[in-house]
């Protein structure tokens, strides 16, 4: 992510999770994607982060909550320390049945059901879903939103610290022009960014957040894909619209 680091207090507001994949061949652990804790038992992420055809031989075993700096535990900043990160085992992965249909990375959304209920604290809280009556008036071109993640930085290496980037919503037609040769974009996608600051490899599955009318953050979109060279001016990245899948999310969490 071409962006700035968050601080420990900001993490309290961002309410993020990091998914870790364990390689079944050699036991290697790595952060694969980000996600959003949306209830005590469910994490919202991108289907590409958990679908068997994409993780290829790796097994999603657990989700880490309340993390900020990956190399330290607990995390401290400005004399404020969070509790030790929480690792919760995965019970089930629910990939949207339309993933990769009719084209690659369509319906790029999934839910992770955790084995046990998460005990919330100051640093671990669920983020809101978009309201059920979400309409087109909720978002408009040039509105500013916030994306976060531990993805690649300008150095080409993954970030050790959770980073945030403020991006503007772009015209859908721009993304259709940039990506039409390889992807079929529709109303389930959002076109965001297009400047030097951008999400990047490793940020997939993480949230794009916006404030609602009550000044509470909700997850507007999920990082999906972008240009081969992150932060290429004139080439916004593509995100999955969470509001488009509101019914599927709520129904899947009930079953």
TrEMBL record:
The keyword Ion transport does not apply. Transmembrane segments: none annotated. InterPro entries: Peptidase_S1_PA, Peptidase_S1_PA_chymotrypsin, Peptidase_S1A, Ser/Thr_Proteases_Immune/Dev, Trypsin_dom, TRYPSIN_SER. One of its GO terms (biological process) is proteolysis. Keywords: Disulfide bond, Glycoprotein, Hydrolase, Protease, Signal. Pfam families: Trypsin. Residues 10-254 form the Peptidase S1 domain. The keyword Hydrolase applies. GO terms for molecular function: serine-type endopeptidase activity. Residues 1-24 form the signal peptide. CDD domains: Tryp_SPc. Belongs to the peptidase S1 family. CLIP subfamily. This is Typsin-like serine protease.
